Amino acid sequence: MFELCNQGKADATVSYELPEGVPENDVDEPTVTFYYVERDDEGAVTNRRMLDEEEGVLLELGECAEVGVRTVTKGIDATDGGDGPLVSGEVTLTADAPEAGESDE
Known about the structure:
By secondary structure, this protein is mostly beta strands. The chain is built from no helices and 7 strands. The protein is globular, with a radius of gyration of 16 Å.
């Protein structure tokens, strides 16, 4: 879906938060989950690591990660009058880099 790169001053822990109201499904899995792609030295995909909401993942300085979105819609009614959209509102991405010091903003 997108590539996320750490172009800051230090390693950063990146996490996400979904808006309230994301519907529940009838299976024991999150309805919306972000994941990042892990690759080997030759560039082949070795894993798609699912991330729980607010779970942090380390992104080292200068490192980039390919990020995707996985949806599980089993048991969710997407018709008019149904459960509505999976996500309505803003998804918040946070990069926490305490070793970078204070911002110059």
